[in-house]
Amino acid sequence: MSYSEKLCAKTQNVKNAIKNKDMVKENNIYNQKIRIFIERKKHTRS
What we know:
Blueprint: H1 3-45
């Protein structure tokens, strides 16, 4: 593997890592919304 190929792969890895981080963040926000929604439902029932 040449130096430029290694550099390209590294850049790709960084991009993927950032994308994964964003996906995790979105997932957490989504889960929080669901949790809040469930909590509200519980409160309205009681």
